[in-house]
Amino acid sequence: MLNLNLPKKNGLFIIGTDTGVGKTLIAGGIAHVLRQQGLKVGVFKPIASGCRDEGILISDDTEFLAMCADADYSLSVISPVTYKTPAAPITCTQVEGRLIDYEEIVTAYNYLCENTDVVIVEGIGGAMVPLDAEHTVLDLAVEFNLPTVIVARPNLGTINHSLLTIAAVRNAGLPVAGLVISGYNAFEADIAEETSPDVICGFGETNLLSIVPYDEESSVEEGKLGEGVIETLSFCDWKALSEL
After folding, report:
1. Where are the domains of the chain?
2. For residues 179 and 150, is the Cβ–Cβ distance under 8 A?
3. How many angstroms separate the Cα of 222 from the Cα of each of 16, 78, 108, 229?
4. pLDDT value at position 211?
5. Domain 11-242 has what CATH class?
6. 40 near 120, Cβ under 8 Å?
7. Which residues in 177-196 are b (16+ Cβ under 10 Å) and which e?
8. CB 120, CB 241: distance < 8 Å
9. Torsions phi, psi of 147, nearest 5?
10. What is the tens place of the pLDDT at every residue in 228-237?
11. Low-confidence residues in the chain, pLDDT < 70
């Protein structure tokens, strides 16, 4: 265990079943919906890799989350630990010769908890991605002790990835808030994509929170959150889930 002694706060932890499944888009969309409801949202991606070097390291994901939350706090608060290397944190630490500073994570999170109404925390990669020689993303999620939203891709293979992630989260003692399918294209969906959400939720004994459509107007890299994503996510009561 990391034993970070983080404060208890209403919020959600966003975990993807894999890299590139859309968890940053979903985390930002949820933050936007909560902000529209009048809440001050603390967005937090404690570790970001693949950052741009502009004198300081800047993550596209971090900028996107800041935009969605209309954040009045700095990018360094949203992502206190940053790496240039586009890889898992354990690889970043080896390539760049710089270990994860967990105290920076604690300091930034304490600030968000003290200055916002609700927090949306996004992991990096999937649940079992190694952070260092002893800890994974899931170990970090345990420290936050928040209801966990599983973000999954819609296509063939997602059932296995999703059920393994749900099982890992539960085995770690964390509550599973439910499943979000990200990037669903109803016009091109095959039988696997049409049926997998019900299969995952049935076998995983969890709720289907949202099936978010593929939206050309949304792009994390370009800092765009489309109305299709916003409208779909608005049907879920994220505030209630954050209070579980």
Report:
1. 11-242
2. yes
3. 21, 18, 26, 15
4. 98
5. alpha beta
6. no
7. bbbbbbbbeeeeeeeebeeb
8. no
9. -55, 140
10. 999 999 999 9
11. none
pLDDT of residue 77: 98
What integer pLDDT is reported at residue 212 of this predicted model? 98
Measured CA to CA in angstroms, residue 210 lies from 136, 149, 170, 182 at distances of: 27, 11, 20, 8
pLDDT in tens, 31-85: 999 999 999 999 999 999 999 999 999 999 999 999 999 999 999 999 999 999 9
Is 45 part of the annotated catalytic residue set? Answer: yes
**Quick check: 17 and 158 in contact, CB under 8 A?**
yes
Burial code of 40-72, b = ≥16 C-beta within 10 A, e = fewer?
ebbbbbbbbbbbeeeeebbbbbbbbbbbbbebe
SS3 230: helix
Q: How far apart are CA 91 and CA 132, in angstroms?
A: 8
Pairwise CA distance, residues 229 & 30, whole Å: 10
Which residue of the set 45, 84, 224, 239 is catalytic? 45
Region of 125 please: left (phi>0), alpha (psi -120 to 50) or beta.
left
Instruction: Look up tokens 């933050």; give the residue.
Output: 31
What's the pLDDT at 1?
A: 80
Cα 130 to chain centroid, rounded: 16
Burial status of residue 33 (CB atoms within 10 A of its CB: 0-12, 13-18, 19 or more):
buried
